[in-house]
């Protein structure tokens, strides 16, 4: 395949050398004459393990060249990668001038190119950049996105120091595209790269790098804060974190990574509070660990805000315990939400088939007596009665019976705290706590089979 790479810096140079190693013909482009000359002498523009041999090899085999002539680069290739810098301002805003500059150059070159062209953004950019780049190219070239060209988002996950190895062995290959043709081309381009090939929505692909890197930062500061507490106690933090990482069911796993409602129950709130208090008593500052509870409380407030935004006063809460399949109400976050709404004068109806007030005992009974003393007046074990008497239905857990609610009550407001549905055909007003409306619109696409599918992670 013939490809061009705009930007021969750290990522561009590695990408150019690795693509050539995969057997593709690569034309590098940069505004730096020095970098272009280096590539044309078979030398890398950066210092990095393995890169010298790769660039020399690719150059000697005639698979790698560089030019300052952007028209030549576009005309002689079918895919153009944009790999220029995206520095941030002091306030954290991205400077996209280099990206837009290259988009204008590619647009100029495409004006007199007849073949379909794929532009791939490899730089780290915020959601919405792909669309803007497409607009610039269409504007400058007079060509039509989807007919004459398309723009793919293909974020880079390599780390400096192990860049070549990372490029050749990525955790996954990700593209965001709305073009089936581009997806086929990228599958072909990367067919010899191991790991899963994931094709997704453009904006999903665009935000991934930020989510990844922010999470990597979170991992590091969490481990450091645990280490600082352990040090103050004379415990070997490396032994602790080594064992922590052995738990592949709850610790290092997809578990708990589903945006949704606040956590609760008898253990998580209590134990994380105990660790915070321990750190406090040891005079160890743990800002990230301390921030966990306020964030959890904020999510309860978000639920209240969404319910209030519906402008209705009869609220049905479907599920009161802290998760499905239990009658444990201790620290159930929805109990706090119900308490706040009752205090504000809302009419609350609660359904939970597992909660029998007469059978609640011990701390479970004490907790609910303190929080919702009149629970027996507002709780029912008849789902239909609760739904019929409410205008807003709040789904708080993944009990199978809640999946039928939208079909049975097609005009109510549904507030989904657990992503009970991936897609639904619903006349009422649906809102997820941490995602938007997933209503399928029959007018937009008749081909979508409109079944209510439960999310499986
Ligand atoms: N460095 C990393 O480890 C890494 C990893 C993953 C992603 N990224 C992202 O990749 C992007 C590039 O990063 P980098 O470290 O390679 O940057 P860099 O500064 O090393 O290289 C950018 C190159 O683009 C060139 N350039 C600028 N305007 C140009 C134009 N109009 N035409 C052609 N070339 C032009 C510059 O001369 C420079 O050589 C950034 O968005 C970065 O966030 C970087």
Brief summary of the model shown:
By secondary structure, the chain is an alpha/beta fold. Helices cover 42% and strands 14% of the residues.
Topology of helices and strands:
Elements: E1 2-6, H1 10-21, E2 25-29, H2 33-40, H3 51-60, E3 64-67, H4 70-75, E4 79-82, H5 97-110, E5 117-121, H6 129-141, E6 149-153, H7 163-168, E7 172-176, H8 180-189, E8 196-200, H9 202-233, H10 237-246, H11 268-281, H12 287-309, E9 314-318, H13 333-343, E10 347-351, H14 362-371, H15 375-378, E11 379-380, H16 383-388, E12 392-395, H17 405-408, E13 413-416, E14 429-432
Parallel strand pairs: 1-2, 1-4, 2-3, 4-5, 5-6, 7-8, 9-10, 9-12, 10-11, 12-13, 13-14
Write a concise keyword list for the protein shown above:
457 residues; alpha/beta; Rossmann fold; 2 domains; six-stranded parallel sheet; 42% helix; disordered C terminus; binds nicotinamide-adenine-dinucleotide
Report on this structure.
- This protein is about 40% helix and about 15% strand.
- The protein has about 450 residues and is α/β, with parallel strands linked by helices.
- The chain folds into 2 domains: about 1-200, 3-Layer(aba) Sandwich (Rossmann fold); about 260-455, Rossmann fold (3-Layer(aba) Sandwich).
- Strands 3-2-1-4-5-6 form a 6-stranded parallel sheet, sandwiched between helices. A 6-stranded parallel sheet has the order 11-10-9-12-13-14. Strands 7-8 form a two-stranded parallel ribbon.
- Strand 5, helix 6 (about 130-140) and strand 6 form a beta-alpha-beta unit.
- It binds nicotinamide-adenine-dinucleotide (NAD).
- Nicotinamide-adenine-dinucleotide binds next to helix 1 and helix 5.
């Amino acid at each position: 395949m013939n490809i061009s790479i705009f930007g021969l810096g750290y990522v561009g140079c590695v990408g150019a050398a690795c693509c050539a190693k995969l057997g593709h013909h690569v034309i590098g482009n940069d505004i730096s004459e020095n970098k272009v000359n280096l590539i044309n002498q078979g030398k890398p523009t950066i210092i990095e393990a393995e890169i010298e041999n790769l660039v020399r090899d690719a150059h000697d085999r005639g698979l790698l060249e560089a030019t300052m002539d952007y028209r030549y680069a576009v005309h002689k290739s079918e895919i153009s990668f944009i790999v220029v810098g995206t520095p941030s301002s002091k306030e954290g805003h991205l400077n996209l001038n280099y990206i837009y500059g290259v988009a204008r150059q590619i647009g100029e070159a495409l004006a007199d190119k007849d073949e379909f062209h794929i532009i791939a953004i490899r730089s780290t950019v915020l959601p919405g950049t792909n669309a803007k780049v497409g607009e610039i190219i269409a504007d400058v070239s007079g060509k039509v996105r989807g007919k004459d060209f398309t723009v793919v988002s293909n974020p880079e996950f390599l780390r400096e120091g192990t860049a070549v190895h990372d490029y050749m062995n990525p955790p996954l290959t990700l593209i965001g595209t709305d073009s089936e043709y581009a997806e086929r081309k990228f599958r072909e381009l990367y067919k010899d790269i191991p790991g899963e090939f994931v094709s997704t929505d453009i904006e999903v692909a665009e935000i991934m790098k930020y989510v990844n890197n922010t999470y990597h930062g979170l991992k590091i500061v969490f481990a450091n804060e645990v280490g600082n507490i352990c040090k103050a106690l004379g415990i070997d933090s490396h032994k602790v974190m080594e064992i922590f990482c052995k738990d592949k069911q709850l610790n290092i796993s997809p578990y708990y990574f589903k945006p949704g409602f606040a956590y609760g129950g008898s253990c998580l709130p209590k134990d994380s509070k105990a660790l915070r208090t321990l750190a406090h008593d040891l005079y160890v500052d743990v800002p990230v660990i301390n921030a966990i509870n306020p964030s959890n409380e904020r999510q309860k407030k978000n639920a209240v805000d969404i319910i209030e935004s519906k402008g209705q006063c009869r609220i049905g809460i479907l599920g009161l315990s802290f998760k499905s399949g239990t009658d444990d109400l201790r620290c159930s976050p929805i109990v706090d939400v119900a308490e706040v709404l009752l205090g504000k004068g809302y009419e609350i109806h609660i359904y939970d088939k597992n909660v029998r007030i007469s059978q609640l005992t011990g701390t479970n009974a004490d907790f609910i007596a303190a929080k919702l003393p009149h629970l027996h007046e507002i709780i029912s074990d008849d789902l239909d009665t609760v739904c019929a008497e409410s205008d807003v239905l709040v789904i708080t857990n993944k009990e199978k019976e809640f999946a039928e609610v939208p079909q049975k009550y097609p005009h109510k407001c549904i507030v989904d705290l657990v992503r009970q549905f991936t897609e639904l055909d619903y006349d009422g007003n649906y809102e997820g706590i941490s995602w938007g409306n997933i209503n399928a619109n029959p007018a937009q696409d008749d081909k979508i089979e409109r079944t209510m599918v439960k999310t499986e992670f």
